[in-house]
């Protein structure tokens, strides 16, 4: 009986830790998606790609890389001051385990700190990855072709990083 209870507890803990929510994005969260009152989404694509990384989570180094990529992307379509403000905002407001909807690893209901996804979690993330591309399609009418291409490119890049080199096509 004790063995059965321990086995049940073990499998329950595995299934709990491996839960990943479908991808969702709110664009640039509490920040504007652009200054142009007509377009209003000048750097939305930068935030969308950043959200993919934040949805998955990982190490503190991976978060730093994601935040630097956001800053670089925004600087290309806006200006360096705006890009740096956004960088500072995500460094402060995007910390893990805050309970905020835009926190690092928000794809996990309860967060996970700076822990890389396990192999079983990567499989679940890859299973949910079509929700990333479904989200991109939702914005095809309001974003430029270049923005859509960037979002797809970053999605593919992040998706490929989840596949071990030994299993990559």
Helices and strands, in order, run as HHHHHHH
| Count of structural domains | 1
Amount of helix? 55-70%
Strand content: under 5%
What's the Cα radius of gyration? 17 Å
> How does the major sheet shape up?
none
Structure report:
With 169 residues, the chain is mostly helical. The chain has one domain. 57% of the residues lie in helices and 0% in strands. It is built from 7 helices and no strands. The radius of gyration is 17 Å and the shape is globular. The N terminus is likely disordered.
What's the helix and strand layout?
Layout: H1 2-17, H2 44-56, H3 60-77, H4 80-93, H5 119-128, H6 130-138, H7 145-161
What is shown here, in short?
The chain is mostly helical and 169 residues long. It is built from seven helices and no strands.
Entry keywords:
169 residues; mainly alpha; 7 helices
